[in-house]
Amino acid sequence: MRAEALPDSLVVVSNRQPYSHEWASGPVDGPIEDDDVTVSEATGGVTSALDPLMRARGGTWVAWASGGADMAVAEDGVVEVPPGEGSYRLKRVPLSDEAIDGYYHGYANQVLWPLCHEDTGRMWGDPTFWEQYRAVNDRFADAVRSVTDADDFVWFQDYHLALAPRVVRRARPGATLHHFWHIPWPAPSVFDHCPHARQILDGLLACDVIGFHTTVFVARFLRCVESTLPDATVDEDAGVVHYDGASTHVVANPLGIDVEGVRQRATAADTAAVRRRVLGETVPDPSIPIVLGVERLDYSKGIPERIAALDHLWERRPDLRGAFTYVQKASRTREGIATYRRYRQDVVAEIQRVNDLYATDDWQPIAYTERKLSTETLDGLYRVADVALVTPHRDGMNLVAHEYPTACVDGDGALVLSELAGAATQLDGALTVNPHDIAGIADALERALELDDDERRDRLERLQESVAALDSRHWVERQFATGPD
Ligand code: F6P
């Protein structure tokens, strides 16, 4: 490790963009007025960690032009953001429907996503997927080339962009290239299923530094390099790979959240109003305890097992019927993929089944909402919840597990957390569960509901301390403190 100042100017490259432009009421020919477009800010963990850095230091962010008006408001694909502030440049990469299908709905989310979440039965390797993944990575690399000089600093984000670093490296041999892989890295026996294992590793190893959330993912990555690339030399103790005449440092650097931001928003929230607004119809009793789940409708998140665990608990403990309501806040995601559409249907049907089984005239066991919530409302909802259930089959980190305890500013709240989420290796104080163990999830929820005050407070304090130690500002600093001398 070497201490290095943050680069003055940086190029960040990610699939998702931090700001997108949509037409307010249809495309406009000729000069565009402010009222013709609406701007929305992304809410994901990656963008909220990196946007403050870019605002403070300037530079360029390269990302997919996913908004309908994105290219129309840009000049040469570039807009100044945040709107009205213009602290840094956003270089947008427009993609055709065919490219999006093959690269995003295809290779990224039907090969790499299930592979890395060790769910290989869901992998589908249509030949066009790889073709488009390569082509789009080339497009991103072109965009990077167009905005960089010889020795610039480029930071690639996530599994959408495994190949672009190699292409950029050829054009910019003196640049410093970093990558952060936000999702899990699979065990070598699982990585063997990847039809393009060598190419994926070759692309990534063009970087000077590759970051993962945990030491487990680092160790697995190094073992995959060792078994897949005979030309590479791996120094496991130092976390360095020597390959193709260069060295890559592979580091564990857990991402966190903007702790103070969550705390402030939760403190400012009018919790009674949040309850009324979000849960008014389904949970009219303002005093019933709330158990909360918040996630994208992704099969890695373990939602059906959680619903089955609720069923199990209410069956085993009839006295807990009417004692709390489970609120599932869900977001639709990747709906161009049939598996995701089916998953949503299954979740909704399962919730209906459990509600039909246990509902009474004045109690709905599970409230389900797909409403888009502002971060203010979401942080308020976390504060309202007595228990949060975060039980993914696999997760790189899982930032809901960070946000929930941070938002419990009243000193009250308990977290049930999957032992297979990256967060479980970083956070202290959660009740951990195996996400496939339905009876075990039910037991942990029962325990969370019945913790005595001292233990509940002690666990929450430990959670809050461990989350604070991983604040996203440290993530950025740690990433740049590593690299070649
Ligand atoms: O966890 C990986 C990730 O890419 C996150 O960065 C992001 O929040 C999430 O998945 C959303 O996925 P998508 O960009 O496909 O909507």
From TrEMBL:
<dbReference type="Pfam" id="PF00982">
    <property type="entry name" value="Glyco_transf_20"/>
</dbReference>
<dbReference type="GO" id="GO:0005992">
    <property type="term" value="P:trehalose biosynthetic process"/>
</dbReference>
<dbReference type="InterPro" id="IPR001830">
    <property type="entry name" value="Glyco_trans_20"/>
</dbReference>
<dbReference type="GO" id="GO:0003825">
    <property type="term" value="F:alpha,alpha-trehalose-phosphate synthase (UDP-forming) activity"/>
</dbReference>
<protein>
    <submittedName>
        <fullName>Trehalose-6-phosphate synthase</fullName>
    </submittedName>
</protein>
